[in-house]
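Morning run. Coffee first, then this:
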Amino acid sequence: MAASSRIVTALVWCSAAISAATGLSAMVGAAGTAEGVQPGGQMAQADDVTIQTALLQHPARDLYEQFCAGCHGLNLEGGSANGFLTADDWYYGSHPDTVYASIADGIIEGGMPEFGSAFTEEQIGQLVSYVTTAVGSGEAVANRFGIPDIIETRRYDLRAEVVVGDDLETPWGIEFIDADTALITEKSGRLRWFRNGRLEPQPIEGTPKVADRGQGGLMEVAIDPEWDAGEDWVYLGFTHGPEGNRGPAMTKIVRGKIVDNEWTEEQTLFEADRDDYVRSGLHHGCRIDFDADGRLYFVIGDRGQSSQAQDLTTPNGNVFRINRDGTVPSDNPFADRGGGVYPQIWSYGHRNQQGLVFDPVT
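And here it is:
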């Protein structure tokens, strides 16, 4: 990979789950049914071109891509949440009544917020029609857009280059060490080396066990800001679930070193009180960055408990600031508050922070 090449990762979080609910078939019908779809969301006999055309021209396409694609996949193939292409993708079937209620009411404990207060009834009906259009179409629709050669942005254009094919399983975080070397996390818990245009076949051994559930897993990786000076610490952010994937969990931050492809010398930098762990599978946050003085900042989302983002005695919905060894800087705003307040908190009241970067100028 040339030194000028970059991998740009955009992670947009939505939420995920399908619930059963009440009958609103008439509303879905009023919103319109895409060509090739029978009542109940079942696919009629239609060729792939017909399906692709229906999706590309569908009135709900832009709405879906803005609010839903981050979790369910740009091409309906799924991501951190289920897709919509096969019968197995649907929790409770693809009947419009069920899908409408899922969008309108949501299932907070399952990771999907309600959109009934944000969307009109017509918009929800159009979304139902859109996501049921491709039922049974499989990979033919999943690949309809392909990878663009050029991605245009307001400030500059990006050249898209495939450097890793199907060898990665849900990559989540990436940290470039130099132009040809990177560390990549996989949501399931594996940490991988990418060197000289090639993904190393063997994951790094001995990394922390993660709770791979919902939006959680092994999310973030960062190297020490003094890496070039010999500080070879690697920092990881992940979902910690002592009882496994189904039990209570919370974001945890550790650091360690990689020696002969093995994770060693692990140190825990932040671990929440066990009483603050929750069963929700969403809004883990988990980005890491460093300021000019080398202090470490990381984020935890509200974990689906939005009211707790205003509570300084819980880790939910906060930006945290610590020293690289896990100690608390004395000038943190709540360092001396006491009363169960987390002294690591730098700012609070956030929902699900998925980006964190310092402007080197300001």
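Confidence is low (pLDDT under 50) at residues 1-46, 138-145. Good start to the day.
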